[in-house]
Amino acid sequence: MTTAEHYKTNLRIALPVMIGQLGHIMVSVADSIMVGQLGTFPLAAVAFGNSIYVIFMVFGIGITYGITPLVAQAAGKGHTLLQSTLLRHSLRINLLSAILLFGAILATLPFLGMMSQEEGLLPLTAPYLLILGSSIIPLMVFQAFKQFAEGLSDTQEAMKAILGCNLINIILNYLLIYGNFGFPELGINGAAWATFIARFLMVVWMGWYVLKSKKFKSKGLHLGGFKLRKRIARKLIQLGVPMGLQYIFEVSAFAIAAIFVGTISAVALAAHQIAINIASVSYMAVTGLGAAATVRIGNQLGAKDGRNLKIASLTIFQLAAVWMTFTGMVIYLYRYQLASFYSTDPEVIEIASTMLIVAVLFQLSDGIQAVALGALRGLTDVKIPTWITFLVYWLLVLPASYFLPKITDWGALGIWYALAVGLTISAFLLTYRFRRMVIKLTLKWSCAHLK
User: Fold this and answer.
1) Mean pLDDT for the stretch of residues 435-441
2) Is 78 helix (H, G, I), strand (E, B) or coil?
3) Cα–chain-centroid distance for residue 64?
4) What share of the chain in percent tops pLDDT 90?
5) What is the pLDDT, as a whole number, of residue 76?
6) What is the mean pLDDT of the chain?
7) Residues 6 or more apart from 440 whose CB is under 8 A from it?
8) DSSP codes joined into one string, 58-72
9) In this structure, is the dihedral angle defined by the CA atoms of residues 88, 91, 95 and 97, taken in order, positive or negative?
10) Any long-range contacts for 168-174 (C-beta under 8 Å, 24+ apart)?
11) What gap in Å lies between CA 444 and CA 451, rounded to an integer?
12) What is the pTM of this model?
């Protein structure tokens, strides 16, 4: 393949995922904007609840990613029966994991009052987190179907499911948050119920497509007659759990940072929710390129094609750099206008717009490290990247986030500076790791050809 063909293939796989991920985050944006109209405290309560929920959610999503590189490699080798077996195992592992994670979310509820948040947030946060937490179960079942299809380079249907159901989510927000058209006025709990319903519909949509579509008929997919194959289950868990830990170390750093911000004031926490919500738009989109990297690298690994592996990875990293540079410029130029969509409180808008300047500084690093993680997943290299994310985010970022506001006059901005440094270090180490792995593999394949 030529370099131009690699760009085209990368975009064909990545764009639907990017649009789907943007659909996901735009619902979060809509939630925050619509809840923000209720006031600063409801917005801060949503930020607090999400900071807890997201830790469990990203771990679960990481577990679901274990199937994608395995399906991509099986496709590269032409192993059709293995693909069906992987899907059945993934569905059961994901469902069991989701139930356990929901139980863990329930277990956190009694401890919310110990997190030093401003008085008045807890009565709003607890019921919101309970409802939102239950949506992790349909989400992880949906992910099994989605990641299976992505492993076979089919990313368009998941995009349609996400966009269609998230539109329903926004409509339900309008009805349930404010009590319009005779619906009950549930406030922030209405946003949580809307998310649960939308995710259940996503399962129905994607499950029907994968199991009934003519495109997958040749795969012999079915859910009955399941017999556990320990080797396959072990492989999915060995890949999925480290991936979940990678996300937990990074996202939990951001989530715990939100809790640290909340100890400063509800105004600072509301501003943090706005800034992180805006910055997440570009990040969620670039994870689509990370997903494309997993598939493309997995295919080349299965085919043992060193030349195309190098070109595929290089072009994906280049696309990520261009995207994050562009979004960074947009955020910088329109930071005040973007923040004002969420709140009418001048103090909240001012703090959020200042945080967004820091977000611009880490845009490129955030994009590069997201793609590097995806590329390493394609090589089924998960253990060392997990240690990298642990060391960077838990041993560097979290202590810095805690102490900087106490030893400087930066306030909540000190937390954002710590996040920016952590993302930059992570991007460098993960990219270096991927480059070393590629050199090692291509050398190995070249020696095998000589023999």
Assistant:
1) 87
2) coil
3) 11
4) 32
5) 67
6) 85
7) none
8) HHHHHHHTTHHHHHH
9) positive
10) 168/194, 168/197, 168/198, 168/201, 169/27, 169/30, 169/194, 169/195, 169/197, 169/198, 170/27, 170/30, 170/194, 172/197, 172/198, 173/30, 173/31, 173/34, 174/34
11) 11
12) 0.72
- Identify the residue with better confidence: 427 or 255: 427
pLDDT of residue 64: 87
pLDDT above 90 (res 301)? no
pLDDT of 136 over the 90 cut: yes
DSSP per-residue letters across 138-200 = HHHHHHHHHHHHHHTT--HHHHHHHHHHHHHHHHHHHHHHHTGGG----THHHHHHHHHHHHH
Place of tokens 């562009």: 326
| Encoded tokens for 270 | 């509301």
Three-state DSSP class for residue 2: coil
Burial class (CB in 10 A: 0-12, 13-18, 19+), 230: exposed
Residue 224's contacts (CB-CB under 8 Å, 6 or more residues apart) are none
Q: Which amino acid type is present at position 264?
A: I
| Domain span at 54 | 3-450
pLDDT of residue 192: 92
Number of domains in the chain: 1
Nearest to 139 by CA among 147, 151, 127: 147
**Token couple for 60:** 């679960």
Q: Exposed, middle or buried, 13 (CB in 10 Å: 0-12/13-18/19+)?
A: buried
**Strand, coil or helix: 120:** coil
Overall size of the chain counted in residues = 451
- Give the tokens for residue 361: 């500084």
Least confident of 190-194, 200-204, 325-329, 379-383: 379-383
Q: What is the pLDDT of residues 63-95, one digit of tens each?
A: 888 888 788 777 766 666 667 778 888 888 899
